[in-house]
Specification:
The structure holds two protein chains of two kinds. Chain A is an all-alpha fold. Chain A folds into two domains: 83 residues, Rna Polymerase Sigma Factor, Chain: A, CATH 1.10.1740; 90 residues, Arc Repressor Mutant, subunit A. Helix content of chain A is 70%, strand content 0%. By secondary structure, chain B is α/β, with parallel strands linked by helices. Chain B folds into three domains: 49 residues, no CATH class; 78 residues, Double Stranded RNA Binding Domain (2-Layer Sandwich), CATH 3.30.160; 82 residues, Winged helix-like DNA-binding domain superfamily/Winged helix DNA-binding domain (Arc Repressor Mutant, subunit A), CATH 1.10.10.10. In chain B, 48% of the residues lie in helices and 12% in strands. Chain B is built from ten helices and six strands, in the order H-H-H-H-E-E-E-H-E-H-H-E-H-H-E-H. Chain B has a four-stranded mixed sheet with strand order 3-2-1-4. Chain B has a two-stranded parallel sheet with strand order 5-6. Classes of the chains: A mainly alpha, B alpha/beta. Chains A and B meet through helix 1, helix 2, helix 3, helix 7 and helix 8 of A and helix 3, helix 4 and helix 5 of B.
Chain lengths: 198, 243
């Protein structure tokens, strides 16, 4: 009889997967949580889950596996579970229904992204704005613009239709535009011109 | 094209979209100053986000992960031993590793080989057959005398956090009493997950010891049980349950 202990990948081969993806997954988890310790624990948990799951897969399933989106999906699921257990009442604000709710919320005490950047730089402003988004919009915007994933890739990671992904990306940007307001221009004046069209 | 329709296409311009689509959007933007301003802001936000640096994890994160994996690999490679033990509810097949019970199955006439295969599929671990050590017999004796599981003799750490929470909540139901799936869901802070709790109970790898038989539907109906509703009723009756 075959068991996960027999079919699990070797620690050596898994080490390479960890090396290749730890930084990207950590960055993603950090942007989802805004907390360095949480992000590290999430990444550890995600890799352990991935290792266990690989051990339960057949050779064919492993051959057909698209590793990168799968690892992001696991990381996102671990993040959701963790945030749910820590903040059960933190139901996502519906940005489309009331984008101003997020702005009001931000005036009452936005999450502080000290974990990501310490100094009060333009980058900190953007990080702070990102953390004010509801998680589903933050995930879509992070994957689209920071990770540079395509709509189909994001749809696969989030297990959502492409139309929903596009809508979430769009809503996220609309809210960020309102939060950042004139700060957007500060970025463009740093030397890289913003252009409307090619 | 209306402004709203064009706005929905902005993000498409960032990728490789059709030239005709690009021209349609660009044409609208050239003719509509308010959309032009909004689009520039949109591009500005996208640009701000793309400028964010990739954060660096602590230098020992990979090492910690690999240590964890190596320990897990060792844990997974140790087989689970499956033994048959007689109890007041019938003969049980009991799977254990080191000093913890991880699997229980009522003997329903299947061959030991079939039971071992089922245990292996459920636990994703290698299963071998062997004799029950004295501590396993004592643990079961104690359970069927007190109807209370001793946490120090069982291990459900291989299950998901949700499964563990649901089974631990079920273990808090006093012997001879029943609670609903919804009650268990409330106890673990997932009030909408009553159906998921039902699935956990149906797949409980330690029936009897983690008393899924004390979980019933909201109307008080015994609902269902892996070994049949009659066995569920019998267990509750043995515990002193009065409907």
């Amino acid at each position: 009889m075959r068991s996960s202990a027999d079919s699990a990948p070797s620690v050596m081969s898994f080490e390479r997967i960890v090396d290749d993806y730890q930084r990207r997954l950590y960055g993603f988890a950090l942007r989802m949580t805004g907390n360095r310790e949480d992000a590290e624990e999430i990444v550890q948990d995600a890799f352990v889950r991935a290792y266990r799951a690989l051990g339960k897969m057949s050779d064919q399933q492993r051959a057909e596996l698209r590793l990168q989106p799968w690892l992001y999906t696991i990381t996102l699921n671990v993040t959701r579970n963790r945030l749910r257990s820590k903040r059960p009442s933190n139901v996502a604000l519906d940005a489309l229904a009331d984008p101003d709710a997020i702005l009001r919320e931000s005036n009452e005490g936005p999450p502080q992204p000290e974990a990501i950047v310490e100094q009060n730089s333009e980058i900190a402003l953007v990080e702070r704005a990102l953390l004010q988004l509801p998680m589903h919009l933050r995930a879509a915007a992070t994957l689209r613009f920071i990770e540079g994933r395509s709509h189909p890739e994001i749809a696969e990671i989030l297990n959502q239709p492409i139309g929903t992904v596009k809508s979430h990306v769009h809503r996220a940007v609309r809210i960020l535009r309102r939060i950042l307001g004139p700060q957007i221009g500060r970025f463009s004046s740093e030397g890289v011109p913003l252009h409307a069209m090619s | 094209m209306r402004c709203r329709d064009v706005e929905a296409l902005w993000d498409e311009l960032r990728g490789e979209c059709q030239a005709s689509l690009k021209e349609t959007v660009n044409g609208h933007l050239r003719a509509c100053p308010s959309c032009q301003v909004m689009y520039e802001q949109y591009e500005g936000v996208a640009y701000c986000l793309s400028c964010l640096p990739l954060p660096q994890p602590s230098c020992d994160l990979a090492k910690k992960v690999i240590q964890h994996i190596a320990a897990l690999k060792g844990k997974l490679s140790a087989p689970i031993v499956l033994s048959a033990v007689s109890t007041p509810v019938g003969r049980l097949y009991v799977g254990f590793k080191a000093d913890r019970i991880v699997y229980v199955s009522l003997d329903t006439g299947e061959s030991p080989h079939e039971v071992a295969e089922r245990a292996q599929r459920r636990l994703h671990r290698r299963v071998v057959r062997g004799d029950a050590p004295a501590w396993v017999v004592r643990a079961l004796d104690r359970y069927f005398n007190t109807w209370t599981v001793d946490d120090a003799t069982v291990d459900i750490s291989d299950l998901t956090p949700f499964e563990q929470a649901a089974l631990r909540a079920a273990a808090r139901i006093p012997p001879g009493e029943v609670r609903s799936y919804a009650w268990v869901a409330m106890q673990i802070g997932r009030p909408k997950a009553a159906r998921a709790v039902g699935r956990v109970m149906a797949r409980n790898p330690l029936p009897f010891l983690f008393p899924c038989h004390r979980v019933v539907d909201s109307s008080g109906d015994l609902h269902n049980y892996y070994y049949g509703v009659e066995m569920k009723a019998r267990l509750l009756e043995m515990e002193g349950y009065r409907r």
